[in-house]
Amino acid sequence: MSEIRAFNATVRCGNFTRAAAELGVSQPAVTSQIQKLETRFSAEIFQRVSKGVRLTRLGLKLYQLTRQYDDLESSIRALANPETQLEKPELKLATSSPRIFMPLIARYKALFPRVELKIVYGSTQECRQMLLGREVDIGLFPLESPEPKEPNLSSLSFHRHRLVAILPVEHPLSARETVSVHELIEQPLIFLRNNSYTQELVEKIFAVNNLTPRPDILMNSRQHMCEAVSYGLGLGFSLSGDIYSSPGYCCVAITEVAEETTEHIVWLKARGQIPEVQDFVNIALDQLYQQQKDQAE
C-alpha cells in the first residue's frame, strides 16, 4: 500500500517533492517507492520532465486502477474513527440541472451546515467525466437508462421530465397544448452550440421523424437561448424542469416526445461509504419518500 500511496500522491501533486510533503515523508522515500513499482513492471510509469513528472501510458493504466484506493482508505477511516474526521468536511457536486437539484442541495446544507459545499456546473458529459475522474463526489445529471453504463457507478432516480419547445408568449403556437416537430421545423430554430444532453434529445426527435433541422441561431447556454426566444428570434428547446418561468416565453409539449428523461444522483461505488455522500443520498431518499406519500394522500 505504501507504493500505491506514493504513486497516487505523485500523480495528484505532479512531482516527487510535493508528493512527499503531502504524505509527510522525505522525497527520497517517495522516489524509492516509485522505483519499486517501476522495477515490478520492468517499465517506467512516469516520464521525468523539467517541471516534474508525467504519466506514461502504463502509468495511466495503473492509475485508473489505483485511484480507487484513496476512496477505500477514506471510507475505512470514516468507519473506524468517525470522531477524527476533518473539522471542515467537504462535499463536491457537479450538476447539469441546477434548477432540479438546488432545493435538495439547500436542504442538505441546512441539515449539515459544517460541510463545505463545492458545486460545479457543466454539461451532462462534463459532469460524468468529473465524477469518473474523482474530481467530484456526486454527479447530478440525467442518465440514458435506469442504471449507469459504468459498473463502478451507483445511482438514484430523482426527477422525471420531458423535452419541450420554448416559444415566445406572442407566438401563434404558444396557446397550443402540444406542437409537432413537423410544425416546429418550419419555424426559426435556436439550438445549443455545445454537445449537451438536451441538444442530443432534440436532434434525435427530429431524426426519428425523418427531419433535418437547420438552426438559425446557435447559443452557448440555456439562459442565452431563453433570452433569444423572449425577444422573438426563434424557438428553443429544453427539458421542462430546467426552465425558469418568465413572462417572455412559455413551454409547450412536443407531440412526438413520449419518453421521459430521468435525472439521477450518481456516485462512485467506492465512495458510497463516505459519510457526506451517504448523508446526501439519504436526504434525497427522504424527499422522494415524502413526495410519494403526498401523492398517495
Describe the model:
The chain is of the alpha/beta class. The chain folds into three domains: 2-66, Arc Repressor Mutant, subunit A; 88-159 and 262-296, D-Maltodextrin-Binding Protein, domain 2, CATH 3.40.190; 163-259, Periplasmic binding protein-like II (D-Maltodextrin-Binding Protein, domain 2). It has eleven helices and 13 strands. Helix 1 (2-13) packs across helix 2 (16-23) and helix 6 crosses helix 11. The longest helix has 22 residues, at 275-296. The model has no long low-confidence stretch (mean pLDDT 89).
Query: Which regions have little confidence, pLDDT < 50, spanning 5+ residues?
Result: none
The helix content, as a percent range, equals 40-55%
The secondary structure category is alpha/beta
Based on Cα principal axes, name the global outline.
elongated
Major β-sheet strand ordering: 4-3-5-13-6
Strand content: 15-25%
Radius of gyration: 24 Å
Separation of the first and last Cα atoms: 54 Å
Task: Return the average pLDDT rounded to an integer.
Answer: 89
For CATH, the homologous superfamily of the largest domain is named as: Periplasmic binding protein-like II
Count of separate DSSP helical elements:
11
What is the CATH top level name of the largest domain?
A: Alpha Beta
Number of domains: 3
Number of strands: 13
Sheet with the most strands? 5 strands, mixed
